[in-house]
Task: inverse folding
């Protein structure tokens, strides 16, 4: 049996970029731990950890706040580091690193100012969070993001690829081949991770009912944020990479495919945004604008997915479609 698989891209600076992405979370962890040590003997019991407007409405033990905050920072740092490692060759990785710094800077500022606001206060209910601190937190996040973008350097060079549809793949009779690529959306992954992280923090520090919306949002976004696209003798299969098991997002058998092709897809102009989209006569998983695989089904509808090397996938699908038609004709 003959098989074909996607090439693995492993740039030499992948490890360096991963460490660059993790550094801001390590810095924030040390800064937060240092602030905690400095004010621990002046903190009330409990401490104010959540605010509605300027007034405290959520409380926790000082040790509990420390543990949750460090856990959230560690999880986000590991998640961002893994994501940068997986996308080290992607052209958007410098902006992903900038997002790491912005998230770490904004979150770190909020955690440290919360401790400082509690220091020296006898009753945690008297702790206040002035509105102007939100503006400062945004400024800190933007400055940290700019620093991250500067440290990330230029986008990785991309190897040239051919464009346009390849009608058929030259595959000898009696042999089979497979094709696979992983597609990811950095904005969706960051959004999903932030929603889950914020939901966990709100749930632990306030109440789980308030966190339900954030957790549901993160759980809905992440499965669509990174998907493996596979073409083989069965047809076209889309599988979420961030979910365990053999869960399939979409499976289109060869028998339902009339023809496949590749072309440039404009996600906003054609589908109105990112994610799994449905419009008149077509549907698709579009995580960016650019090269995409477009499958015309036997019922006249189209399914599109934005993915690199779509011409090869289309050619292989057309080969299997031809074989299926030949068997039916015979």
Result:
């Amino acid at each position: 049996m003959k098989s074909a698989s996607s090439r693995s891209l492993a740039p030499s600076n992948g490890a360096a970029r991963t460490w660059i992405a993790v550094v801001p979370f390590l810095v924030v962890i040390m800064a937060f731990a240092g602030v905690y040590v400095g004010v621990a003997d002046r903190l009330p019991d409990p401490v104010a950890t959540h605010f509605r407007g300027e007034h405290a409405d959520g409380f926790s033990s000082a040790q509990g706040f420390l543990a949750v905050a460090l856990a959230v920072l560690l999880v986000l740092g590991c998640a961002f580091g893994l994501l940068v490692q997986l996308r080290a060759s992607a052209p958007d990785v410098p902006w992903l690193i900038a997002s790491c710094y912005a998230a770490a800077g904004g979150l770190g500022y909020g955690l440290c100012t919360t401790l400082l606001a509690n220091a020296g206060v006898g009753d945690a209910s008297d702790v206040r969070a002035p509105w102007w601190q939100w503006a400062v937190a945004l400024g800190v996040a933007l400055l940290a993001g700019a620093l991250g973008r500067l440290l990330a350097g230029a986008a990785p060079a991309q190897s040239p690829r051919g464009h346009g549809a390849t009608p058929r793949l030259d595959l000898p009779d009696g042999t089979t081949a497979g094709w696979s690529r992983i597609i990811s959306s950095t904005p969706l992954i960051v959004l999903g991770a932030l929603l889950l992280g914020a939901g966990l923090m709100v749930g632990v520090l306030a109440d789980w009912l308030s966190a339900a919306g954030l957790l549901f949002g993160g759980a809905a976004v992440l499965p669509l944020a990174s998907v493996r696209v596979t073409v083989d003798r069965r047809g076209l299969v889309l599988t979420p990479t961030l979910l365990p098991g053999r869960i399939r997002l979409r499976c289109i058998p060869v028998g339902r495919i009339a023809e496949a092709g590749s072309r440039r897809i404009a996600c906003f102009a054609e589908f109105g945004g990112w994610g799994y989209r449905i419009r008149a006569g077509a549907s698709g998983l579009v995580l960016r604008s650019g090269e995409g695989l477009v499958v015309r089904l036997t019922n006249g509808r189209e399914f599109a997915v934005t993915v690199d090397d779509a011409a090869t996938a289309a050619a292989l699908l057309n080969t299997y479609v031809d074989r299926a038609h030949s068997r039916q004709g015979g």
